């Protein structure tokens, strides 16, 4: 491949304190939190709406917000969650886990979340390049939009692209997929079916693959729908007569390769039609008159790059339910790694190796997992934080990303106020204090508990 050098100058916007790239869950809370802290904040999003996988990607339900006892993804995360639930009358008010998502309602919730504290949103703007100096500092982002090429400059950048594009293009170290084979988890192209018979659906057979008598197994055995690859078929009623599906797998999809993701999207649309036809044949009472109402404008990508940060969250940390002095949120989701084609097509799918948490159990996510160790003014939040692949299978989901994003936004605002912005030099105690003030679930560390006890004792002595 040859090269081409441009001679034209690119217009520069250099008035921002914080620029967030990527308007998924992590990007939305990052931008909202940074603006709330007083930083002049820009959120750059490649599509025409905020919310990422919960909106453009059509993921039909939130992963659990609770540790089976209480909601642990709080602050802005629970604000988004409860705001959407309040607009969905068929959802129980006390529901905490696997709650359906109405994507159109959620888009507006994210719009309001980001704009109310004063962040500026720029849609349909694609990141094209990252400019750096020789000292680990990003100096500008080059973007492309209807305004043409623009250079955007800030004191601190938050990478919420999901693929660590900003960090990777700035030269940060990262890993990608399986460390031995490079294989990535399969993707899923979510879709919705309209004109579903609600009564028949809600009172009919459970479609999920955990049900060993699910009609999905009859569909696979029939051989009449060869496009349907396996038994994976999560589904939720997201609106009247409308069911959302997170179903099937597409292997060898790399979201960092434009041609790969383009091919997968075209394949996914055909797959959605195959599911509709199969469900109409095998469950006609529910789906006989249904149609494909929409397919995701984003592919459901589970993993690509993981940055190497100041700390790499390990399997041992997860298994030990470890706490950290610099943790910025807790996580209780199970290790959810979707397997190879062979693994997913076998009976029962890919087996779980690491035992799920019990009620009340969680682990901490350290701030150091958000700080690429070779970059001074970049934070990463979302599925590409610093962790081993197994743990990425847990921390990649939307509730966790919402919580991480808020922490990144506050930290970025703090770093932007420094004479020489350095995300590695943020005051952790101040960061955790602000998170708690905004409602975050951060149990006291042993040192904090001891200090609080000593302070209480001194107060009683006086």
TrEMBL record:
<dbReference type="GO" id="GO:0016491">
    <property type="term" value="F:oxidoreductase activity"/>
</dbReference>
<dbReference type="Pfam" id="PF12831">
    <property type="entry name" value="FAD_oxidored"/>
</dbReference>
<dbReference type="InterPro" id="IPR039650">
    <property type="entry name" value="HdrA-like"/>
</dbReference>
<keyword id="KW-0560">Oxidoreductase</keyword>
<dbReference type="GO" id="GO:0051539">
    <property type="term" value="F:4 iron, 4 sulfur cluster binding"/>
</dbReference>
<keyword id="KW-0411">Iron-sulfur</keyword>
<dbReference type="InterPro" id="IPR036188">
    <property type="entry name" value="FAD/NAD-bd_sf"/>
</dbReference>
<dbReference type="GO" id="GO:0046872">
    <property type="term" value="F:metal ion binding"/>
</dbReference>
<protein>
    <submittedName>
        <fullName>Tat (Twin-arginine translocation) pathway signal sequence</fullName>
    </submittedName>
</protein>
<keyword id="KW-0004">4Fe-4S</keyword>
<keyword id="KW-0479">Metal-binding</keyword>
<keyword id="KW-0408">Iron</keyword>
């Amino acid at each position: 491949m040859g090269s081409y050098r441009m001679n034209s100058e690119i217009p520069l916007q250099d008035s921002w304190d914080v620029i967030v790239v990527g308007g998924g869950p992590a990007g939305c809370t990052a931008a909202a939190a940074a603006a709330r802290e007083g930083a002049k904040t820009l959120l750059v999003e490649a599509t025409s709406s905020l919310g990422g996988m919960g909106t453009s990607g059509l993921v039909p339900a939130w992963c659990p917000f609770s540790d089976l006892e209480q909601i642990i993804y709080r602050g802005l995360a629970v604000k988004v969650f409860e705001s959407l639930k309040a607009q969905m009358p068929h959802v129980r008010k006390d529901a905490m886990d696997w709650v359906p998502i109405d994507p159109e309602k959620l888009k507006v919730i994210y719009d309001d979340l980001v704009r109310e504290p004063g962040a500026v949103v720029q849609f349909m703007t694609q990141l094209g390049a990252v400019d750096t100096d020789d000292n680990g500092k990003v100096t500008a982002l080059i973007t492309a939009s209807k305004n043409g090429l623009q250079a955007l400059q800030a004191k601190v950048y938050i990478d919420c692209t999901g693929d660590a594009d900003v960090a990777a293009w700035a030269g940060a170290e990262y890993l990608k997929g399986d460390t031995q084979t490079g294989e990535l988890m399969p993707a899923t192209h979510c879709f919705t079916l309209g004109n579903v018979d609600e009564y028949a659906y809600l009172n009919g057979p459970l479609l999920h693959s955990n049900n060993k008598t699910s009609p999905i197994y009859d569909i696979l055995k029939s051989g009449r729908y060869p496009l349907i690859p396996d038994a994976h078929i999560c589904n939720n009623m997201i609106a009247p007569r409308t069911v959302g599906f997170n179903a099937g797998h597409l292997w060898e999809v790399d979201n960092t390769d434009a041609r790969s993701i383009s091919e997968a999207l075209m394949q996914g649309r055909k797959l959605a039609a195959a599911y509709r036809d199969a469900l109409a044949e095998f469950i006609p009472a529910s789906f006989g008159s249904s149609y494909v109402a929409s397919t995701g404008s984003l592919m459901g990508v589970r993993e690509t790059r993981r940055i190497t940060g100041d700390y790499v969250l390990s399997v041992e940390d997860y298994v030990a339910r470890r706490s950290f002095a610099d943790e910025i949120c807790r996580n209780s989701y199970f290790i959810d790694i979707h397997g190879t084609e062979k693994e997913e097509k076998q009976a029962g799918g890919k087996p779980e190796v690491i035992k799920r948490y019990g009620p009340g159990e969680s682990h901490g996510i350290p701030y150091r997992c958000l700080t690429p160790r070779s970059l001074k003014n970049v934070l990463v939040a979302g599925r590409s934080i610093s962790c081993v692949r197994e743990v990425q299978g847990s921390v990649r989901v939307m509730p966790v990303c919402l919580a991480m994003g808020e922490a990144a936004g506050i930290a970025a605002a703090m770093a932007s106020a420094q004479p020489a912005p350095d995300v590695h030099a943020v005051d952790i105690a101040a960061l955790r204090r602000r998170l708690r003030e905004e409602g975050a679930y951060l149990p006291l560390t042993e040192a904090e508990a001891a200090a609080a006890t000593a302070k209480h004792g001194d107060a009683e002595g006086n």
